[in-house]
Design goal:
This protein is of the alpha/beta class. It is 30% helix and 27% strand. It contains 12 helices and 20 strands. Strands 3, 7, 8, 9, 10, 19 and 20 form a 7-stranded mixed beta sheet that branches. The chain has a 6-stranded parallel beta sheet with strand order 13-12-11-14-16-18, with helices on both faces. β4 (63-65) and β5 form a beta hairpin. α5 (152-166) packs across α6 and α8 crosses α9.
Length: 372
């Protein structure tokens, strides 16, 4: 088979802080061994993708052209990004498509003509060279769009539940809970009979999750939020939270409410309750500092949670069990919904960038590199 040429999106940060995101031609060699060439048909825009694609660049005042944009990165962000200066970085964690060429290994040949999902990075491209062993064959009849988000959100939601169980908690709290991931978590907790407290940011999002059957859905902007949070934590016994927002005081308010519940009726201690309260920050919808007001005793932890380190620690048996559950429930429990579909070129237009970079909860965008 001859080389394959197609377009891909690259993100390059210059030493002077100029971020250039552009379409570039890419030539892939013929696959060998266990490699396969994937014709990419659908790839979602996840918050983790935006961290590489645009980071905190000023896209409102960027220069936009045909197939490119140039934006300025704030000086405060440059130190953390020193290792990527001058490097043209491919973007797009996950996606799905059809295998059109394969190396000589049996596992590669077995995928020829099959529709698969994978998470190799660089999926905002028309073609991608990947290892067959990293591909998940989609069920018969499943579309690339249905399989495009088969990894990051489903495995993250299942990872929350696995973490909760491994650390001895019996219920959990989730913020920005009206997202695609949050809706999956609602369904998982219903199926597994796990009490779940959902925190959202508008009455419309409350209605959305209640329509899915969620019992505890709280609007953090409501006047009675603090009171309702304590009531929900009292009923569920939740002592672990997964926070997608990051900045601001919400994590602190959740830990404070957990402590209020744990201390109710207990003998006073200046050290607070002995109940361990855990909050994991896994997102950055709010880029401002995380504010902690120490009103929750001394038995608490706040840390970061990322999918890849979790999977590395979970072990092969657990990961395969999780992947099998996703594969078997791709169009039901783990279905994703998209606000809009964008070609590679359209994804770099001003209107599209401002829309998906707003990171509005529940508004997920899909890149279609090879539109029909």
């Amino acid at each position: 088979m001859s080389d394959i040429t197609g377009l891909q999106i690259l993100s390059t940060l210059a030493p002077d802080g100029r971020l250039t995101v552009s379409l570039a031609e890419q030539t892939l060699p013929a696959p060998t061994g266990s490699q396969v060439v994937l014709r990419v048909e659908a790839a979602p825009i996840n918050p983790s993708d935006l961290g590489l694609l645009l980071a905190s660049a000023d896209v409102d005042h960027a220069e936009y052209g045909d197939g490119y944009l140039v934006a300025q990165m704030p000086e405060a962000s440059m130190r953390a990004m020193a290792s990527r200066l001058g490097e043209a970085m491919p973007v797009g964690n996950e996606g799905a498509g059809t295998v059109i060429a394969a190396g000589e290994a049996a596992e590669a040949q077995a995928l020829l003509g099959r529709r698969v999902a994978c998470v190799p990075g660089g999926m905002y491209a028309q073609y991608r060279l990947v290892d067959a062993r990293a591909c998940m064959v989609l069920p018969d009849g499943a579309t690339a769009e249905q399989g495009a988000s088969a990894f990051v959100n489903p495995m993250t939601a299942l990872g929350f539940v696995e973490t909760m169980r491994a650390e001895g908690h019996k219920a959990l709290v989730h913020t920005a809970a009206a997202s695609n991931l949050g809706q999956m978590l609602v369904k998982i907790c219903q199926a597994d009979d796990i009490p779940l407290v959902n925190i959202v940011r508008s009455p419309a999002q409350v209605s959305l999750l209640r329509d899915l059957g969620a019992r505890h859905v709280l609007d953090s902007t409501a006047d009675d939020f603090a009171e309702l949070l304590v009531a929900a934590l009292t009923e569920t016994g939740a002592t672990i939270a997964f926070d997608a927002i990051g900045g601001g005081s919400l994590v602190s308010r959740i830990l404070g409410a957990m402590e209020q519940v744990a201390s109710a009726g207990a003998t006073y201690s200046r050290y607070g309750s002995a109940t361990m309260k855990q909050a994991y920050i896994y997102g950055a919808l709010d880029l401002s500092p995380t504010l902690l007001t120490r009103s929750f005793g001394f038995s608490w932890r706040v840390g970061g949670w990322l999918l890849t380190p979790f999977l590395a620690q979970a072990g092969a048996e657990t990961v395969e069990r999780m992947r099998a559950r996703v594969r078997d429930n791709l169009t039901g429990l783990f279905a994703s919904h998209y606000k809009a579909r964008l070609s590679l070129r359209d994804a770099l237009t001003r209107d599209a960038v401002l829309a998906y970079n707003a990171r509005r909860t529940g508004e997920k965008y899909l890149i279609v590199p090879n539109p029909a």
